[in-house]
Specification:
The structure holds three protein chains of three kinds. Chain A has 14 helices and two strands, in the order H-H-H-H-H-H-H-H-H-H-H-E-E-H-H-H. Chain A is an all-alpha fold. In chain A, strands 1-2 form a two-stranded antiparallel sheet. In chain A, helix 2 packs across helix 5. Chain A is elongated, with a radius of gyration of 23 Å. By secondary structure, chain B is of the alpha+beta class. Chain B has seven helices and twelve strands. In chain B, the strands form three sheets. Chain B has a six-stranded antiparallel sheet, with no helix packed on it. A four-stranded antiparallel sheet of chain B has the order 7-8-9-10, with no helix packed on it. In chain B, strand 9 and strand 10 form a beta hairpin. In chain B, helix 4 packs antiparallel against helix 5. Chain B starts with 22 loop residues before the first helix and ends in a 16-residue tail after the last strand. Chain C contains 20 helices and eight strands. In chain C, the strands form four sheets. In chain C, strands 1-4 form a two-stranded antiparallel ribbon. Classes of the chains: A mainly alpha, B alpha+beta, C mainly alpha. The interface between B and C is large, with 121 and 136 residues.
C-alpha cells in the first residue's frame, strides 16, 4: 500500500482544512440534538464509524460514513413526522437503549478496528472493479484520463465521484457541452465504493461524515446562499443559463451530499468553494436553506415554478386577461 | 300642449318614421306627441314622430303610466326606444321562474361563499411553519380565501349579468349624439365675451401692468419649482468616482473575516469588501476576488501590470452596463456573466466585455498583501479603483 | 322650463308620501337635478364586447385603490435596518429594511394580508394589461380619430403613468429582486447626458441606494401618481360621456346617433356585474397563484443578485431593449454617453412620441379632417392595421428579449445564439409582419366584397344541363340582371356562412350558438304577434315594422 500512503500524505496536506476542521465540532454538535430522532440501527452505526474515523486517517473510512450520510435526510423526515409528544416520551427510553447498543457495537468494532483498513480497502477494491467495468474507457486504467475522452481523475477526490456519479452525470452518454443530470447508474453503495477507490488513488476533497445539513442556521445559510449561489442558481434554486449553451442546473433534485460535493468539487463551470471560503458549518447551513426552501410549501397558492415575473406575466395575460375577455364576450353576447 | 322647444326640429339626426305608417295616423291614435303608443304596456313603443317638440305637459304626464312617462322622458333627452320587449311577455311562466331561480342561486352561492370565507378567515391557521415542525395546512389558507372570495364575487357578478340578460326587458335604443361644435352664433358670442373681458382689463394697452404681472406670475411659477427641486437636489461631488477602498484598506469577506491568499483554491472566487466602516453595505464596494488556475495569464491594461497578486486578481462586481452584480463565474472559460442583461466579461482579457450590451471592462482593484498580527498574509488594496466603477455617466472620465 | 301647476295632478306628485319620494322632492327643490339625472340614466351605450376593455382597467384601478389602502395600514416605507423577528423562519435574524420587514409581516403575520397583497399585485399587472388591450382596440378601429385625439393622448398618459406607478409599487418591498430593478433604474438615470448624475442624486438623495428612495417612491405610489391617475381617468370618462361612445357601422348606425342599451337599468347591471367578475378573477388569482414571493428573494443587498432577475411584464419591453442593444458607449469631448441611454431613454421616448403623434400623422397623410363616430374594421384600413401589428411585433420581440435567459433555459438554446437571433428578429420581424398583415387585410376585404357580389357559398353543388357543376350561392340582397348582388360594402361585418343568415328565429347570434327562444316563450310571442297583426290591420300598418325601419348608412 505504498502508493496509498503517498497519496494519503499528499491529501493530508491538502485536506487538513477540509476534513480536520469539521470533524471536531461535528461529533459533539451532531450527536446531541439528534439523539431523540435516531432509530436503533442509526445509533448503532453512527458512533462506530465516527470512532474509527477519529482515530484513523479519514480518507479510507469514508465509504461507509458516506454511505449513510445521504440517507440522513430521509430519517430526519421520518422523525419529523412522528408526533412531538411521542418523541418526548420515548426520548429517554431510546437514549438508554441507544447508549447500551452503542456501547455494544463500539466494543465489537473496537476489537475489529485492526481489520478496519481491510474493510475500507475492500470497498475501494469493489470500487476499482466497478471502475474498470464502467469508467475505464474514458478515464484510463490508472485514472490518468484518455485524450479526447475524459480527464485524469487523480486528485479530484471522492467529492467529485459523489457529485458526478451520484447525480447520474457520469457515466456520460456522449460528449457534449456539458453533462446533464439523469437517473444514476450506480446505487449509493456503489458510488461510495467508487469514491473510495478514487480517493485512495490521488486523494482530493471528499465529504465529511455525519449530517450535511444544519437546520439551526437556516437564515444564515440563506444569506450565504444569496451571496454565493443565487447569482447562478437563482434565489429559489431554479438554475439559469451561462454563455453559449452552457447551463446552470436547478437544485430541485439535489440531495444534501450532492450539494456538499458540488461545493467541494466545483464541477464543470462551478467555482470551488473550499473550506476556507465557506466553512463546513456554513456549507451545512446553505444546504439546510436550499432544502428548506424546496420542502416548504408556497403560502400564496401555486408557486408558478418560482421563477418570478416572467411566469406571473404569462399568467396575467393568459389566465387573467383570458378570463375577463371571456366574461365580456359573454356579457356582450345578445340573448 | 308642450312647454319647451329645446330641440332643433331641423336636426338631421332625427330618425324619421321611415316612411311606413303615417305620422298623421299616429298622431290621431296617440294624440299627444309623447311618442308613446297606446299599445299594451310591455310593448310600449315611442313614435318616431318629431315634427314638434316632445315634452308633454304635466297634465298629460299625470295620465300616463310609469313606462309611458319614462319613454316620454327618453324622447325629451333625444333617446328613442326603438324596440322594447319584456323577455317573458306573460308573467309567471315556468321558464321565467327558472331564470329567476338561476339568478337567485348565483346570489345564494355568493352568500354561502362569503360565510365560508369568514369561517376560513377566522378559523384556519395561517402562520408559516418550517417543514417538519408542524402542520403545513397554512399553505391552504390564502388559496381558500382567494377561491371563496372569488366565488362570492363571481356569484354577484354572474347573477347581475344574468339578471340583465334574462329578466330585464330587452331593448334597442338610439340616441342623438349632439356631439358636434356649438352653433356658429354661440361661437361668435363666446369669442366676443372673451374679447370684451380682455379689453375691459385693458391689458393690451397697459403695458406696465402686463410686464409687471408677467414678472410676478413668473416668479410665483418658479418659486415652488426652486423650493421643491432645490430641496431635493444634491451635488454628486466625486461620490460616483470613488469607492471606500483606499491605500492599505484591508479586504474582508461579507462576515468581516479578512481575506487571505491561502483561502481560495485555483478556479475559485469570492465576494470581498473594503474592511472599513460601512464597507460591506456600500453599493459600490462589492469586489470579486478570483484565483486563477495555474496555467492562466491575464493580459493587463496599460499601467496595471502590478494590480494582481500572484495568481489572484480582483475586479469590481458591479457591471459597467447597468450596475447589477456581474457575478456568474464560468470557471472553465473564466468568464463573468451579468444575470440582468447577459453581458459577458472575459477575465483572461482583463475582464473585457466579449458579449452583450456592456461596453467597458470591469475596473480592476490593485491588490497587495500585508502580514497580519498572526503572521499570516492578508489582502489589502493598494489604492482605490483607478476608474469609476459601475454604469457609465456623463462626467465619467 | 316653465310649467303651469295643474290642479288635476295626482296627489302623490304634489306631496310625496314615501320616504324616498320625500328625499327626492327635497333634493330636487334644493339642487334641481331631475332633468340632468334623467339624461344620464337614459344615456345610451353601444353594445359590443370590445367596448368593455377600458372597464377592465377602470375596475382594476378601483380594486387597486381598495387593496392598496388596506396595505398602507401595515406597510412602513422606511429603510431603517432591523433584524427580522417574524414568523418566516428562514429569514429570522437577517438584517433588512423596515420596508421589507413590514412586507413580510403583511405576508406572514397579518391574517389575510397575503391574499390582499397578491390581489393588489395581480390587479396592477391586470391594470396595465387591460389598458394595453384597450389601446389596441382603440387603435385598430380608428377610435382615436377626430374628435377623440385628446382622449387618445389622455389614455397614453394613463398607460405611461400606470407603468411608472407599477414600477414604484414593485420597488416598495425593498427585496432583492426589486432592489436590483432600482439599481438598473439608477443606471438609466445616470445615463442621461449632462444631468444624469444630478438626476440620480436628486431622486435617491445620495449615492445609490441612499436611505430616502423607498419613502419617496411610497409617497409617489400612494398619493402623487394615483391622484394624477384618478384625475386623468375622470377626464377620460368625462370625454367619453361628452362625446359619446363610438360604434361599429351597421344597419341603422349613423355618425349622428348611438345605438345600444340605456345606462339604467340594463347596462348598469351588466357593467356592475362585470366589476364583480373582474374582482372575482383577481381574487381567484390572488389566492391561487403566488405572486412576487419576496421571502424567496431575500432583502436587498447591493452585493447580491439572483439569476433570472426580471421586472414585471410591462417593464419587460425596456429590459429586452436593454439586453439586445449593442455595446455603443460613446465618448464626446471627454464626456460619456452610456449605451443604456439609447434603449431605455431614447427608445421609449420615440415610441411614445410616435404613438401620441399617430392620430395627427394619419389625419395629415389621409387628409381626413372630419369627425368620426363610426369605427372602421381593421381590414378596411390596411396601412394602419399593418403599422399597428408591426409595432406590436416589435414590442413582442423586445418582450421575449426581456426573458431571453429563461427562454434559453426552457428551450435549451444557447444564450449567445438567442441574443443574436433576437437582435436580427428585431430588425426583420416587424417589416415581415407589416407585409403579412397588409396582405391579410386586402384578402379579407376582397372576400367580403366577393360574398356581397356572389352570395354565400351554400355547399350545395348543382349540375347544369350543360354538364357543368356549380355551387349554389345565396345572395345577401337584391341581385341585378346578372345575378350579382347589389349591396355595397358598408364597413360592417358580412355574414359568410349560411347559419349566420338563416335560422327559424331572429338572426341574432348568441355566444356559442344561435339563440333559440324557449318553446313556451315562443308560443307566447306567437300569440302576441297574432294579436298585433289583427290590431295593426285596423291601424293600417305594423308597429314592429315601423320601429325597425331605419335608414341605412350611405
Amino acid at each position: 500500500m505504498s502508493h496509498d500512503d503517498a497519496a494519503r500524505a499528499a491529501v493530508d496536506a491538502d485536506l487538513e482544512s477540509t476534513v480536520g476542521a469539521d470533524r471536531k465540532p461535528e461529533v459533539g454538535a451532531d450527536l446531541e440534538p439528534d439523539v431523540d430522532a435516531l432509530d436503533l440501527s442509526d445509533v448503532g452505526f453512527d458512533p462506530a464509524v465516527r470512532q474509527t474515523g477519529a482515530e484513523d486517517d479519514s480518507t479510507l473510512d469514508h465509504p461507509r460514513a458516506n454511505s449513510h450520510t445521504p440517507t440522513r435526510g430521509l430519517r430526519r423526515k421520518r422523525a419529523g413526522r412522528a408526533g412531538r409528544l411521542r418523541r418526548r416520551l420515548s426520548a429517554g427510553l431510546v437514549l438508554m437503549i441507544a447508549l447500551l447498543t452503542m456501547g455494544g457495537i463500539y466494543s465489537m468494532f473496537a476489537q475489529a478496528s485492526s481489520a478496519d483498513d481491510s474493510t475500507t480497502a475492500a470497498n475501494a477494491d469493489h470500487g476499482r472493479q466497478l471502475f474498470s467495468l464502467g469508467c475505464v474507457t474514458c478515464h484510463g486504467a490508472n485514472l490518468q484520463g484518455v485524450v479526447g475522452r475524459g480527464p485524469s481523475l487523480i486528485g479530484v477526490g471522492g467529492a467529485a465521484v459523489y457529485y458526478q456519479v451520484g447525480t447520474g452525470r457520469m457515466p456520460l452518454v456522449r460528449q457534449g457541452a456539458e453533462a446533464v443530470r439523469k437517473p444514476p447508474r450506480y446505487s449509493l453503495e456503489e458510488v461510495s465504493d467508487l469514491a473510495a477507490y478514487i480517493q485512495a488513488n490521488g486523494g482530493g476533497p471528499t465529504l465529511p461524515q455525519g449530517s450535511l445539513r444544519d437546520d439551526k442556521n437556516v437564515a444564515e445559510g440563506g444569506q450565504l446562499f444569496r451571496l454565493n449561489c443565487a447569482q447562478c442558481h437563482g434565489a429559489a434554486g431554479r438554475g439559469a443559463v451561462l454563455s453559449a449553451g452552457k447551463g446552470i442546473p436547478s437544485l430541485a433534485k439535489a440531495e444534501d451530499y450532492q450539494i456538499y460535493a458540488a461545493m467541494l468539487h466545483g464541477p464543470e463551470n462551478m467555482p470551488v468553494f473550499n473550506n476556507n471560503q465557506l466553512t463546513p458549518e456554513q456549507k451545512r447551513s446553505i444546504i439546510a436553506y436550499v432544502q428548506t426552501l424546496k420542502e416548504s410549501k408556497d403560502p400564496g397558492g401555486n408557486g408558478l415554478a418560482r421563477i418570478g415575473p416572467v411566469s406571473e406575466g404569462a399568467v396575467v395575460w393568459i389566465v387573467g386577461i383570458g378570463l375577463v375577455l371571456v366574461s365580456i364576450l359573454w356579457i356582450g353576447a345578445k340573448s | 300642449m308642450t312647454t319647451s322647444g329645446m330641440d332643433d326640429p331641423a336636426a338631421p339626426t332625427r330618425p324619421g318614421p321611415g316612411g311606413v305608417g303615417s305620422g298623421a295616423e299616429r298622431s290621431t291614435s296617440l294624440g299627444d306627441g309623447t311618442g308613446v303608443t297606446d299599445q299594451p304596456a310591455p310593448r310600449g313603443l315611442p313614435a318616431p314622430e318629431h315634427s314638434s317638440p316632445d315634452v308633454p305637459s304635466v297634465a298629460e304626464l299625470a295620465q300616463m303610466d310609469t313606462e309611458q312617462a319614462m319613454l316620454a322622458g327618453a324622447v325629451a333627452d333625444g333617446v328613442f326606444v326603438e324596440h322594447r320587449r319584456n323577455r317573458y311577455p306573460v308573467p309567471g311562466t315556468r321558464s321565467e321562474k327558472r331564470a329567476e331561480l338561476a339568478v337567485a342561486a348565483c346570489f345564494a352561492i355568493s352568500f354561502l361563499a362569503m360565510i365560508a370565507f369568514l369561517v376560513v378567515f377566522v378559523a384556519v391557521p395561517f402562520k408559516w411553519v418550517l417543514p417538519g415542525q408542524g402542520s403545513q395546512t397554512f399553505h391552504l389558507y390564502t388559496p381558500l380565501l382567494g377561491t371563496l372570495l372569488g366565488i362570492s364575487l363571481f356569484g354577484v357578478g354572474i347573477g347581475a349579468v344574468l339578471w340583465a340578460k334574462w329578466l330585464m326587458p330587452e331593448e334597442e335604443v338610439v340616441q342623438d349624439r349632439h356631439g358636434g361644435p356649438s352653433s356658429e352664433a354661440d361661437q361668435l358670442m363666446t369669442a366676443a365675451t372673451f374679447k370684451s373681458g380682455f379689453e375691459d382689463t385693458g391689458l393690451a394697452r397697459r403695458s406696465l401692468l402686463k410686464s409687471t404681472l408677467g414678472l410676478a406670475g413668473g416668479a410665483l411659477g418658479i418659486v415652488p419649482l426652486v423650493a421643491v427641486v432645490g430641496g431635493l437636489v444634491k451635488k454628486p461631488g466625486n461620490k460616483l468616482q470613488t469607492t471606500l477602498f483606499t491605500k492599505g484598506t484591508p479586504i474582508v469577506y461579507a462576515d468581516g473575516r479578512r481575506a487571505s491568499p491561502s483561502d481560495l483554491q485555483a478556479g475559485g472566487l469570492v465576494t470581498v469588501f473594503p474592511g472599513v466602516e460601512g464597507g460591506v453595505k456600500a453599493a459600490d464596494s462589492p469586489t470579486l476576488l478570483i484565483r486563477l488556475r495555474p496555467n492562466q495569464k491575464i493580459k493587463p491594461r496599460e499601467n496595471q501590470a502590478d494590480y494582481g497578486w500572484n495568481d489572484y486578481v480582483a475586479y469590481s462586481k458591479i457591471c459597467t452596463h447597468a450596475g447589477c452584480p456581474a457575478s456568474l463565474y464560468e470557471q472553465q472559460t473564466s468568464r463573468l456573466l451579468c444575470p440582468c442583461h447577459q453581458s459577458q466579461f472575459d477575465v483572461l482579457l482583463d475582464a473585457k466585455p466579449v458579449f452583450g450590451p456592456a461596453a467597458r471592462s470591469l475596473p480592476r482593484l490593485p491588490l497587495g498583501v500585508e502580514k497580519g498580527p498572526d503572521g499570516k498574509d492578508y489582502f489589502i488594496s493598494l489604492s482605490d479603483y483607478t476608474e469609476p466603477i459601475g454604469p457609465g455617466f456623463w462626467e465619467r472620465k | 322650463m316653465t310649467t303651469t301647476i295643474h290642479s288635476d295632478l295626482p296627489r302623490n306628485f304634489q306631496k310625496p308620501r314615501t320616504p324616498l319620494g320625500k328625499v327626492a322632492k327635497g333634493s330636487e327643490e334644493r339642487f334641481g337635478l331631475a332633468a340632468g339625472i334623467r339624461k344620464q340614466l337614459n344615456k345610451v351605450f353601444p353594445d359590443h364586447w370590445s367596448f368593455m376593455m377600458g372597464e377592465i382597467a377602470l375596475y382594476s384601478f378601483i380594486i387597486l385603490l381598495l387593496t392598496g389602502t388596506y396595505l398602507t395600514f401595515f406597510y412602513d416605507a422606511s429603510m431603517a435596518e432591523v433584524a427580522y423577528n417574524g414568523t418566516y423562519a428562514p429569514l429570522q435574524g437577517v438584517e433588512m429594511s423596515r420596508a421589507y420587514e413590514t412586507t413580510l409581516n403583511i405576508s406572514f403575520d397579518v391574517r389575510g394580508g397575503l391574499v390582499i397583497r397578491q390581489i393588489h399585485h395581480w390587479a396592477a399587472l391586470m391594470f396595465v394589461a387591460a389598458m394595453t388591450i384597450h389601446m389596441f382596440r382603440v387603435f385598430f378601429t380608428g377610435a382615436f380619430r377626430k374628435p377623440r385625439e385628446a382622449n387618445w393622448l389622455i389614455g397614453l398618459s394613463l398607460l405611461t403613468l400606470g407603468v411608472v406607478e407599477g414600477f414604484a409599487g414593485y420597488s416598495l418591498p425593498d427585496d432583492l429582486l426589486s432592489g436590483t430593478g432600482l439599481r438598473i433604474a439608477d443606471a438609466i438615470m445616470l445615463s442621461i447626458p449632462v444631468i444624469g448624475s444630478w438626476v440620480s442624486f436628486l431622486v435617491f438623495g445620495d449615492e445609490f441606494p441612499g436611505t430616502d428612495i423607498i419613502g419617496r417612491l411610497y409617497i409617489a405610489h400612494v398619493l402623487l401618481i394615483p391622484a394624477v391617475l384618478a384625475a386623468l381617468i375622470g377626464a377620460h370618462l368625462a370625454l367619453v360621456v361628452k362625446q359619446k361612445h363610438t360604434q361599429f357601422p351597421g344597419p341603422g348606425n349613423t355618425e349622428d346617433t348611438v345605438r345600444g342599451e340605456r345606462v339604467y337599468p340594463v347596462y348598469a347591471a351588466k357593467a356592475g356585474g362585470f366589476f364583480f367578475l373582474v374582482f372575482g378573477v383577481l381574487a381567484g388569482l390572488g389566492g391561487l397563484a403566488q405572486i412576487n414571493p419576496i421571502w424567496l428573494f431575500g432583502p436587498y443587498n447591493p452585493a447580491q443578485v439572483s439569476s433570472g432577475s426580471q421586472p414585471d411584464w410591462y417593464m419587460a419591453m425596456l429590459d429586452g431593449s436593454t439586453r439586445l442593444f449593442p455595446q455603443w458607449e460613446t465618448r464626446l469631448f471627454g464626456y460619456t454617453v452610456p449605451s443604456v441611454f439609447w434603449p431605455t431613454v431614447v427608445l421609449p421616448t420615440i415610441l411614445l412620441t410616435l404613438a401620441a403623434a399617430y392620430p395627427f400623422i394619419e389625419a395629415r397623410l389621409t387628409k381626413d379632417r372630419d369627425a368620426h363616430n363610426l369605427l372602421q374594421r381593421p381590414r378596411d384600413v390596411p396601412v394602419r392595421t399593418s403599422l399597428g401589428m408591426m409595432a406590436i411585433s416589435f414590442v413582442v420581440v423586445l418582450f421575449i428579449g426581456g426573458g431571453n435567459d429563461l427562454v434559453a433555459k426552457v428551450f435549451n438554446i444557447s444564450m449567445n445564439a438567442m441574443m443574436w437571433g433576437l437582435r436580427i428578429a428585431l430588425l426583420l420581424v416587424p417589416p415581415m409582419v407589416y407585409m403579412i398583415t397588409y396582405r391579410l387585410c386586402i384578402g379579407l376585404q376582397r372576400h367580403d366584397r366577393e360574398v356581397l357580389e356572389h352570395g354565400i357559398e351554400t355547399g350545395i353543388i348543382k349540375r347544369l344541363p350543360s354538364g357543368e357543376f356549380i355551387e349554389v350561392h345565396q345572395p345577401l340582397g337584391p341581385v341585378d340582371a346578372h345575378g350579382h348582388g347589389e349591396l355595397e360594402y358598408a364597413g360592417t361585418s358580412v355574414p359568410k356562412r349560411m347559419n349566420q343568415v338563416g335560422g327559424a328565429t331572429r338572426a341574432i347570434a348568441g355566444f356559442f350558438r344561435p339563440v333559440r327562444e324557449k318553446p313556451d316563450v315562443l308560443e307566447q310571442l306567437e300569440a302576441i304577434h297574432q294579436a298585433e297583426l289583427e290590431s295593426s290591420v285596423s291601424h293600417g300598418g305594423s308597429v314592429e315594422v315601423q320601429a325597425h325601419r331605419r335608414q341605412l348608412p350611405e
